[in-house]
């Protein structure tokens, strides 16, 4: 045993021997590593692919894709292999994913990353309203999608003697902001290196409130007697950006509502003339309907003039 130990020590002290052993060890490591890399490269990977053509802005569900096996070496880094990064995501606004195609990172986005994503959840019984703003009336870009605002109305009247009266009040409470756009239609708060100036705040309200706001804006634009401004004011309702349950958008000031209605004309929907086929012989009925509407708008004067 002692002789064997002595011979081993002498063998290891030989520099040539040690060099050869190290070289053989390195070659063995390289061979093993190379074989492992080759096996990994040709090892098939289960990859999701589109089983049907997916249009832009379409939600990706379990029924949207199947699986196929592809060698790992043939996959680029932007191919999505994790289905958790597909289900519930959307195809981007500018991309059609063809049938049979794999999913790539640049073609799949989260719902909130879609342009106008906030408009997707708009209730069916509400109507969009675009409110013009600037950097001042938007509180220096402090009104964000998901925030709630109150709508104030400011009215300035000047009588024949030049006397000016100002009326200001809250017209509508708790309006959910759905988007904030620039004058070019770009989202102000999306990821961007450029500073964007708000030009429009977009929200949705019930039809009666929508019409009330339209009337107020029209009176301000068309009347020489009244100057009306619609002003957004942030409130603290749902300030986290989440839509809060139980928050009701409502008219806050009946006096302002009556003021607007008094200077507007109401035409019941059942009396609005529907367009008809010009080839059909219904001209008489249309004329009668139009006369009824004119009478409501202009009073008896129209009927008297037609009688003359």
Report on the architecture of this protein.
The longest helix has 28 residues. This protein has four domains: 41 residues; 70 residues, Alpha-Beta Complex (Type Iii Antifreeze Protein Isoform Hplc 12), CATH 3.90.1210.10; 140 residues, no CATH class; 39 residues. 29% of the residues lie in helices and 23% in strands. It is built from six helices and ten strands. Helix 5 packs across helix 6. The protein is elongated, with a radius of gyration of 36 Å. It has 308 residues and is an alpha+beta fold. The strands form three sheets. Strands 5, 6, 7, 8, 9 and 10 form a six-stranded antiparallel β-sheet that branches. Strands 1-2 form a two-stranded antiparallel sheet. A two-stranded antiparallel ribbon has the order 3-4.
List the helices and strands and how they pair.
Elements: H1 2-13, H2 15-42, E1 44-50, E2 65-71, E3 90-91, E4 108-109, E5 126-132, E6 148-158, E7 164-181, E8 200-206, H3 207-222, E9 226-234, E10 250-251, H4 254-262, H5 283-298, H6 300-307
Antiparallel strand pairs: 1-2, 3-4, 5-8, 6-7, 6-9, 7-8, 7-10
Helix pairs in contact: 5-6
């Amino acid at each position: 045993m002692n002789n064997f130990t002595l011979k081993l020590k002498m063998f290891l002290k030989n520099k040539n021997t040690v060099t050869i052993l190290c070289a053989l060890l390195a070659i063995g490591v390289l061979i093993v590593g190379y074989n492992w890399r080759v096996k990994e490269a040709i090892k098939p990977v289960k990859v999701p692919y589109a089983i049907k053509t997916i249009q832009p802005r379409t939600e990706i569900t379990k029924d949207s894709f199947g699986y196929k096996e592809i060698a790992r070496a043939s996959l680029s880094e932007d191919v999505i292999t994790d289905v958790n990064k597909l289900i519930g995501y959307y195809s981007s606004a500018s991309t059609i994913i063809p049938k049979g195609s794999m999913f790539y990172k640049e073609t799949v986005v989260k719902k909130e990353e879609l342009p106008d994503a906030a408009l997707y959840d708009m209730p069916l019984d509400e109507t969009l309203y675009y409110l013009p703003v600037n950097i001042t009336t938007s509180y220096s870009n402090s009104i964000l999608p998901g925030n709630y605002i109150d709508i104030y109305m400011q009215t300035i009247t000047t009588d024949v003697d030049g006397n000016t009266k100002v009326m200001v009040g809250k017209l509508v409470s708790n309006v959910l902001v759905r988007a904030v756009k620039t004058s070019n239609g770009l989202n102000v708060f999306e990821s961007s290196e450029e500073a964007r100036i708000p030009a429009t705040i977009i929200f949705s309200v019930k039809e009666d409130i929508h019409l009330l706001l339209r009337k107020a804006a029209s009176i301000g634009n068309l009347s020489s007697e009244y100057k009306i401004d619609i002003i957004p004011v942030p409130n603290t309702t749902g300030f986290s950006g989440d839509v809060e349950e139980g928050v009701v958008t409502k008219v806050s000031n009946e006096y302002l509502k009556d003021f607007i209605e008094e200077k507007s004309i109401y035409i019941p929907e059942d009396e609005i003339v529907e367009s008809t086929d010009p080839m059909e012989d219904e001209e008489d009925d249309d004329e009668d309907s139009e006369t009824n509407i004119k009478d409501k708008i202009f009073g008896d004067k129209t009927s008297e003039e037609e009688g003359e």
